[in-house]
Amino acid sequence: DYPKEAKVGWRSPSNIALVKYWGKKPNQIPANPSISFTLSNCATTTSVTFKKLDEQVAHWSFEFLFEGAPKEDFKPKIETFFGRIEKYVPFLKEYHLVIESSNSFPHSSGIASSASGMSALALCIVDFESAIDQTMTSDFLKKKASFLARLGSGSACRSIEGPLVEWGEHKNIIGSDDLVGISYPYQIHDIFRKYRDTILLVDKGEKTVSSTAGHSLMEGHPFAENRFKQAHANLNSLKEILQTGDLKRFVELVESEALTLHAVMMTGQPYYILMKPNTLRIIESIWKFRKATGLNICFTLDAGANVHLLYPDSESVEVKTFIADELSKYCQNGQYINDHVGEGAAKY
Ligand code: PMV
To answer: Which top EC class is given (predicted)?
Structure first.
């Protein structure tokens, strides 16, 4: 039997895609496979207190506290999430949930918190279930959490494990699955185990276009089919790159993926430009710096104006100076966040 009251907590990181997920089919099935670095410092910590409801009620309910205060604008997202997952976690309907969440990164920094937030919440729910189902292994717990997290926000299914997670069927990636993120199953060069990501906060405002609206732009998009094929091809190339540690090819592939994501946004109907003038200034500056120094720093982008700088740990001294002297002037209030590749979510 499930307990009358119990509290569980998880800390789950954000992730940054190298090959981007953009476009989806019904039930949060990705239109193409993707792969991401799991981050470490940028994370959401969530605890859920499950309180058993009166049998007559028999419908889940919840309250949501963000950084200690009730937050109404997140509630519709959570409601949609619970509506999608209830059939996989039938015990949910017998509980009232007190969800308490906080982010390690500054609020409204323009960093997407849906991946870390939804994965942390999914982990709490499956963890509670595992307290009853003694047969549940920790591997199964993580797999089910990834499955549920995907239903909250697609990319959230890639935040449970690390350092690299692949999501979506690909014929040359064993175990790849449209329903869950998998820990990348091939050997990777040591250099990628210590990769760094500095997030330059160019624009901390509200997103111009929601992910949902963005993904739907790929339906009937004139370049969609070629884009989906390209993602498959890029995962093939990346397999070799990750194994050999060929950073020159890594840089080319990662930057091209980022620009392709923005290119399809610019050529959709309606069309969007999500970069800001400072995004372009940063890109130009990175290209100049790379040419002058021969270092391997590159950029990637999400569906927004902020820039993720990716570079090997061994180059961090030079890059640190470059950021302080040059790139920080293109950031809002000079703000950026230093992060690195991590191992995934953890109970706390
Ligand atoms: O998880 P969603 O639906 O918010 O989509 C995120 C998509 C990108 O961040 C732009 C790319 C990716 O693969 O993470």
So the answer is: lyase
